[in-house]
Every structure is written in C-alpha cells, then in structure tokens.
Amino acid sequence: MGNKVWNSLFLSLIAIFFGTMIASAQSVLPSVSINLGTTNSPEEFSKGVQLLVVLTVLTLAPSILIMSTSFIRMVIVLSLTRQAIGTSSLPPSQIIVGLALILTFFVMAPTFNKINTQAFQPYMKNEITQQEALKKSVEPLREFMFRQTEEQELALFINLAQIDAPKVTDDIPTYVLLPSFIISELKTAFKIGFMIFIPFLVIDIVVASILVSMGMLFLPPPMIATPFKIILFVLIDGWHLITKSLVEGFMT
Questions:
Q1: Domain limits at 135?
Q2: pLDDT higher than 70, residue 25
Q3: Prediction pTM value
Q4: d(CA 240, CA 234)
C-alpha cells in the first residue's frame, strides 16, 4: 500500500514538469471542471475523492521533487562555498537556489526524458494503463536514487521499517529508498563542503596570526582575509571547478 502511495506522488510530480508538453500533444484532452453537488452513485463520489487527493498531492509535488533529485547536494555545497569565502550575502540566496535548480535540471534531464518517453507520453496517448505508467515513471527515479544512496543508509531505514531484508533492489519500497537517498546526499554534500572550507580556513589562520604578531588586535581578521579569499577563488576559477565536480559526481 505504501509503494502505491509513493508511486502516485511521483506520477503527480512528473505531470508538473511535462504539463507544458500536453498543450502541444496531438491528442484531444478532456476539460476539467470542479463543482459541488450531489452524487447519484458511489462511482461519482469515488472520482471526486480521487480528484481531491490529486490536488493535494500537487501541492506537495515541488517538495517531493526537491527531495528526490540532485537539488539537495547542489544547494548545500553552493551555500557552504559562499560561507567559506566569507561573503554571507553574496551571491544572494536567490542566485544560489536558482543555480542549484538549473544544475539539477541539467543533471536530471536524462532521467526526466526517460520518464517522458517511457511513461508520460504513452499514457497521454492511451497506449498504457495508469498502473503501467506509474511503474514506468518511478523506475528511472529509483534508478537514479539507488546510484547515489549508500548501503549503510539503506540498511538503517530497512531496519527502522521492520521489513525483511530485500534480495534485490526492486524489493526495496520507495518510502524506504527516499529517506535513505536524502541522508546520503546530506552526508556527501557536507563532505564536499568540508574540503572546500580547508583552503579558506588556512587563509583565515594566516591572516589572524599576522595581525596578532603585529599587535593589531582590534582589526577584525575577516576584513583582511575576505579579499584574499575572493582573489584565491577567482584565480583558481572556483565556480568552474565546483560546478564541474558537482555535475560529474552524478554522472559516475
């Protein structure tokens, strides 16, 4: 039952991204109208409940998308980079989040294209059933998450869920895979952030030591260290290196 719920969430999420493609499809789509009234049969009541559930899922879809893609690692690493440089408000948070989203779309493009061609478009053309579309749409996302998820985290949530040890990855429910993927991404992001902090921390230590040795105790070290950290970051082409490392990390 849990797997079906997660599958429905993922299908609704995919519908948001490929909604623009529906307008250009050659098939005629039915119109949707919402009104209140009495029902004459249990089937009509069931359809109304299903529509309410879908609308509720659509409000949660952006959060589910963020938590099931590369966005977690992207935004954390970029935010830690800004903090390591010492410019707490530059680049602005909107730029950091926007860049993380663009990089996420770039990394996830093959997965989204596979979902579109294998599940979404055939479903819109009535070539496959809803259940088949659910299964085919979740498979590419599960495949992506499995590549980035550590076995240690999977084992943790399998034990917490109190389910039998799976023999193959297909036996692992999506509601177990998703938190395992999130924890793995958080761990990886902070590992990368630690490596980024080291050279800038060295600059802070050197500048603070020089100021103390010169007796300039009341001069804030960050005021002197920040320009040197910015120069270092520009000279090594920091944004290029970080972006390259992040993207290549998902392609290996």
A1: 1-18+87-148
A2: no
A3: 0.69
A4: 10
